[in-house]
Design goal:
This is Sensor histidine kinase. It is a single chain. By secondary structure, the chain is of the alpha+beta class. It has three domains: about 160 residues, Beta-Lactamase; about 55 residues; about 140 residues, Heat Shock Protein 90. About 55% of the residues lie in helices and about 20% in strands. It is built from ten helices and ten strands. The strands form two sheets. It has a five-stranded antiparallel β-sheet with strand order 2-1-5-4-3, with helices on both faces. Strands 6-7-8-10-9 form a five-stranded mixed β-sheet, with helices on one face. Strand 6, helix 9 and strand 7 form a beta-alpha-beta unit. Helix 1 packs antiparallel against helix 2, helix 5 packs antiparallel against helix 6 and helix 8 runs parallel beside helix 9.
């Protein structure tokens, strides 16, 4: 077999291409491996990992990450190398850079340095990745600079996502706190109005009804027409007294404070019975629950009963109240016309608001709220909230 002539030019070209392919593979590994790691790390560990990988990629022995907070203060969030040398370098960093910048300053502790900006979603620089070396090395080429900028952009995206998530969590907690305070204020106002009505208008109506009854008993025999009018007035006065008591009970049922949740719920279910709807209890828990749990479950059941009376056209309702393994459970099930969740029939904006309120009350207690419904197959409300046994008053 004849040997091919040796071509030094071709061999050099092959070696050059091989080195270039190795460099590209190293850049690709830098980005891919770091990207996979960042998804599993906390923000502090993200910064340390990116800084270490960037220094190793360029064979530089010092590095740090500077970030600007919401108040404009620049702080060092990660570092690698001599604290003394990094301290002198930090004073020379340009935190307004928008593009990578390579600098050489012979005679200094760190004569070579690279600054790579971290830009947020608004394209504003909020941080700088600084790499430096204590000995002389070749300046990075454009592809290396692009790779490091991509690495910095990757870190910036993860940090910004973490900041946005933290902001959303804080806002969600603030909103939940405001809603909780609103519900407490609402209950306090309902209690105040209920007591005012009981001590004022309700007593006046009861007194009026008694005086009318006394007057009717002492009144001589009246003509049929006048007697019918008097009886109508007595009936109207009695109706006002009953309606006033129902209004007070709806605002703040004294039976809830005095006898507990089960009795209060059964009393509330009388509204269903009065409407001709059969009510069946499948599980009854006589235990007294913490005040916040009792009032929340009572309001949820009250809203559920309102929806049944207004929308369901049901003939039967099943209710259940249970306490098991530190969990209080409430179930309200009807055999009414139901609805498609998210697509209520007719105009049910008020019903949707009621469901949202039930969900929020449950969420504030750290529980779960489920509404199951289908057209012509009824609706079921399932509420489970934490209720530690050691905090439960029997």
């Amino acid at each position: 077999m004849q040997n091919l002539p040796h071509d030094p030019g071709s061999a050099l070209a092959i070696r050059t291409q091989y080195r270039q392919s190795q460099s590209r593979a190293a850049r690709l590994r830098l980005l891919v491996d770091t990207g996979q790691e960042l998804t599993r790390l906390a923000p502090a560990a993200m910064r340390e990992r990116v800084l270490a990988r960037a220094c190793a990629f360029l064979a530089m022995d010092h590095g740090m990450l500077l970030e600007r907070d919401a108040g404009g203060q620049v702080t060092r969030t990660a570092s690698l190398g001599s604290r003394e040398r990094l301290g002198s370098l930090e004073l020379q960093v340009d935190t307004s850079l928008r593009l990578p910048c390579w600098q050489e300053q012979p005679g200094t502790l760190l004569p070579q340095r690279l600054q790579v900006p971290l830009r947020g979603g608004d394209d504003q620089t909020f941080g700088i990745l600084v790499l430096a070396n204590s000995t002389g090395i070749a300046a990075p080429d454009n592809e290396d600079l692009e790779s490091l900028q991509l690495l910095a952009t990757l870190l910036a995206a993860h940090l910004e996502n973490d900041r946005l998530l933290s902001t959303l969590i804080v806002r969600d907690r603030t909103l939940s706190d405001l809603v909780s305070r609103l519900f407490r204020a609402q209950e306090d106002e309902r209690r105040r109005v209920a007591y005012d009505l009981h001590d004022g208008l309700a007593q006046t109506l009861a007194g009026l009804h008694q005086r009318l009854q006394g007057f009717a008993g002492r009144c001589p025999t009246l003509p049929e027409t006048l007697d019918a009018d008097l009886q109508a007035i007595l009936t109207l006065a009695q109706h006002c007294v009953v309606e006033g008591r129902q209004l007070i009970a709806g605002l703040r049922p004294s039976v809830l404070d005095d006898f507990g949740l089960l009795t209060a719920l059964d009393k509330e279910a009388d509204r269903l019975r009065d409407a001709g709807i059969q009510v069946q209890w499948t599980t009854r828990c006589q235990a007294r629950l913490p005040g916040a749990v009792e009032i929340a479950l009572f309001r949820i059941a009250q809203e559920g009963i309102n929806n049944i009376l207004k929308h369901a056209r049901a003939s039967q309702v099943q209710m259940a109240l249970a306490l098991h393994d530190g969990q209080a459970s409430l179930r309200v099930t009807d055999n009414g016309k139901g609805f498609v969740p998210g697509q209520p029939p007719d105009s049910h904006d008020a019903q949707h608001l009621g469901l949202a309120t039930m969900q929020e009350r449950t969420s504030l207690l750290g529980g779960t709220f489920i509404c199951l419904s289908a057209v012509q197959q009824g609706t079921q409300l399932k509420i489970d909230v934490p209720c530690p046994l050691e905090e439960t008053a029997l």
